Amino acid sequence: MSDNIMSGADIVIKALADQGVEVIFGYPGGAVLPLYDAIFKQNSIRHILVRHEQGAVHMAEGYARSTGKVGVVLVTSGPGATNAVTGLTDALMDSVPLICLTGQVPTHLIGNDAFQEADTTGITRPCTKHNYLVKHVDELSGVMHEAFEVAKSGRPGPVVIDLPKDVQFAESKYLSPEEISQRHYFDKVTGDSEKISEAIELIATAKKPIFYIGGGCINSGTAACKAIADLVRITGYPATTTLMGLGAIPSSSPQWLGMLGMHGTYEANLAMHGCDVMIAVGARFDDRVTGRIDAFSPNSKKIHIDIDPSSINKNVPVEIPIIGDVGEVLSQMLKIWDQKAPNVDSKALKKWWSEIDDWRAVNCLKYDQGHEPNDTIKPQYAIERLYELTKDKETFITTEVGQHQMWAAQFYKFEKPNHWMTSGGLGTMGYGLPSAIGVQVAHPKSLVIDIAGEGSTMMNIQELGTMAQYNLPVKVFIINNEWLGMVRQWQELLHGGRYAESYSAGLPDFIKLAESYGMTGMRATHPDEVDDVIRRMVDEPGPVIADIVVSKEENCFPMIPGGAAHNEILLGLNESQEQTQSEDGMVLV
Amino acid sequence: MTNDNIERHVLAVLVDNEPGVLARVVGLFSGRGYNIESLTVATVSEDDSASRINLVTSGTPMIIEQIKAQLERLVPVQKVNDLTEEGPHVENEFALIKIKNSGPERREALRIADIFRARVVDTAVESFVFSLTGSPEKIASFLDLMRNLGEVEIARSGVVAIKRGKKTVIET
């Protein structure tokens, strides 16, 4: 080990340790055996053996998003790498910092259609922030450290490092992060002060303002979340958060209008539509948020704070773009606000709040839960009870994708960032279970619940094996309606009730399935059983699958149909509204 | 809202000269549905560490802004210069044109080549190869004329461009 000469595999592990990595999620195979040998010979980094490479990436995402650290994945060549692609795309869409190490056939076999060869860098180029093929061991230390910088700096994202097997065996000198010269890659962190002054001026004179807060705020860190909460409080302005932004400001704040967008609240969407000044903070004007783009918030001037210049003016033109780290820019803004102490237009604000209060009075999330013997459990009720019975604990929530995800976003309330993990951009069914495992690995003592649908759960159900192997006490809370509920809902609303292939027969008995893995299974079929099942689930020290059998026909409202504007939001389904979507809207997903 | 005026822009993109960098740039354009009208690439630094991609694209002002922002996000991209926006610049293209003909058309081809200052780089009994340098428009009009005079084969380099005056792309 003199002069730090070591094998490529040892260089990788040493670099991971120097970057503060504590855990790797992975699956071995021929092309990564030297790396696994290196893992075997050390004790500083833990390895979690997954059941499928997609699961490994979602676990690393859950780990990263609940800790703010970089998640690390290790998979083999060929199928190992291709199985990771969905997870990588998910991480790219939701800006999650990941390092994914992939094995590769030896350099002399690359391009030969060798066994378990795939063009990993070619395949992952569009679904990573950056990727590397390390063809010589002398480049390895530099690539490893640069990859971490790329993954976590600016707008975070996944980075793939493809490692041919001969490079893992070859020897070279290990270089620490300090010995590496960084290349030109960097991001603008502080905001343009002139733009910030302009923004302050506009904010201070607003009559109908709204803060629109996205996941970028959470990515920026707890300081950014505190800063935005402060700014919201000081100004007294209303605020809404995106699906990814839930928890950025405490939901107990009376100024929080709930989530906006396709299944957002009536008050949040109408406030966005009617505002005169919009302050977008780490949000990207996604189509699920804006609805019909040419009718989106037609009368407002927009301020957009984002670290990614390509997010600015992408979908919606804004008057004042501020490129920089959200946390940094907000603290600059707070400082100026303190100095200037502007007088906000309290008379106009009062009027604005009274408009908002009228919208709030609609009570758009209301549902009727009967408690008669024949009544079934409403999914909203199950999630609302889950929230009430777990809110006093340190609870982390992950979700799958579909109706249950939207109900979870509507009914589970977050006081802090990094406690809500969901697949927002890509909408990956099967995200929640492995993601919850990653969260639990990072927070072994905390309560981690995957609010799931039975359809999505089945997409990565094999990861129950990972839960069992490491005895991770994840609680899988399945909102079971036997339907692919969101598909069914769209078929009901938009396709004349022709339910093509959206019913899953042949579901497992989730209690027996849990028991077969040595876990606890439980079930609720009547509203009066819900509290008891939740209490038993939370008290159980080991992993649990709770099968909550809910009413099958429940739809998720409010809803802005595809191609509609915010003010065309539906609160429920009247018989006259069966076909509400325009032809243009029908083609939108 | 969106401006529907399609504009043509010439971009000079300085990149690290490493494997896959061109694929990243081209993949970005195809993946996001942007146009590439022409693209050339060659190393330009003394130590071969940097390459320059000369790229002609078109789109609405909002799309052009997106293209530049997306290019700048790529890790091996050092700098993106929009020559169309940054002021006067020179655009040039190089073409080799083969024409198959005989008789009076052959003489006419030579006469036109002379007017365009195209050089004859190869001659055979029934063909010429001309070499021509100039703006894309000049090459296009030369080709229009040649196509009337026989069967034509064309090899074009695509546009390369540089700013006028003493400023380099590094300095702006």
Descriptive labels:
heterodimer; A: alpha/beta; 6-stranded parallel sheet; 24 helices; B: alpha+beta; 5-stranded antiparallel sheet; 9 strands; 40% strand; elongated
Briefly, what is this?
The complex is a heterodimer of chains A (589) and B (172). Chain A is of the alpha/beta class and 589 residues long.
Describe the structure.
Chain A has 589 residues and is α/β, with parallel strands linked by helices. Helices cover 37% and strands 16% of the residues of chain A. In chain A, strand 12 (277-281), helix 13 (287-290) and strand 13 form a beta-alpha-beta unit. The radius of gyration of chain A is 25 Å and the shape is globular. The N and C termini of chain A lie far apart (57 Å). The model of chain A has no long low-confidence stretch (mean pLDDT 95). Chain B has helices spanning 21-31, 61-73, 104-116, 136-147, and strands at residues 7-16, 38-43, 50-59, 77-82, 89-100, 119-124, 127-134, 151-156, 160-163. In chain B, strand 2 and strand 3 form a beta hairpin.
Ordered list of secondary-structure elements with their pairings:
The complex is a heterodimer of chains A (589) and B (172).
Chain A: E1 5-7, H1 8-18, E2 23-26, H2 33-40, E3 46-49, H3 53-67, E4 71-75, H4 79-83, H5 85-93, E5 98-104, H6 120-124, E6 130-133, H7 140-152, E7 158-164, H8 165-169, E8 171-173, H9 193-204, E9 209-213, H10 215-220, H11 222-235, E10 239-241, E11 256-259, H12 266-274, E12 277-281, H13 287-290, E13 301-306, E14 320-323, H14 326-340, H15 346-361, H16 379-390, E15 395-399, H17 403-411, E16 420-421, H18 432-442, E17 447-453, H19 454-457, H20 464-469, E18 475-480, H21 485-494, H22 510-516, E19 520-524, H23 530-539, E20 544-549, H24 583-586
Parallel strand pairs in A: 2-3, 2-4, 4-5, 5-7, 6-7, 9-10, 9-12, 10-11, 12-13, 13-14, 15-16, 15-17, 17-18, 18-20, 19-20
Antiparallel strand pairs in A: 1-8
Helix pairs in contact in A: 1-2, 1-7, 3-5, 3-18, 9-14, 11-14, 12-15, 16-17, 16-23
Chain B: E1 7-16, H1 21-31, E2 38-43, E3 50-59, H2 61-73, E4 77-82, E5 89-100, H3 104-116, E6 119-124, E7 127-134, H4 136-147, E8 151-156, E9 160-163
Antiparallel strand pairs in B: 1-3, 1-4, 2-3, 5-7, 5-8, 5-9, 6-7
